[in-house]
Amino acid sequence: MKVLLVDDYRTSTDSLANVACSMGHAVTRAYTGLDALVAASGEGAFELILLDIGLPDINGHELCMRLRASEKYASRRIFSLTADEDVGERFDMSCFDGQLLKPLSLEEFESLLAG
């Protein structure tokens, strides 16, 4: 599966990428919203995207809305990733397929990757 991991906290992103790669997935990392948009505009489409809400340039909610506006990502699996349990009070999270809380457990991440 092609996976896009978007988080400005590089250690977390790299750790999740290592787990996904060890499970045989093709992983692209992005540390900013702009990097994610560039990666998403490339050839093919990611089948799973995890978006940190608190990115330094474009928040994850806005990024999700931009991705959903394209036919390419209108029906792909996109999950928010945040340490903020109250994120739903600030954003309409309906554009996401689900919300994941940091720190993300290894079991939860592996289950998500397994489909």
TrEMBL record:
It comes from Pararobbsia alpina. It comes from the Bacteria. This is Sensor histidine kinase RcsC. PROSITE patterns: RESPONSE_REGULATORY (PS50110). Keywords: Kinase, Phosphoprotein, Transferase. The modification 4-aspartylphosphate is found at D52. It is an enzyme of class 2 (transferase). Residues 2-115 form the Response regulatory domain. Its EC number is 2.7.13.3. GO terms for biological process: phosphorelay signal transduction system. One of its GO terms (molecular function) is protein histidine kinase activity. InterPro entries: Bact_response_regulator, CheY-like_superfamily, Sig_transdc_resp-reg_receiver. It holds the Pfam family Response_reg. The gene is rcsC_18.
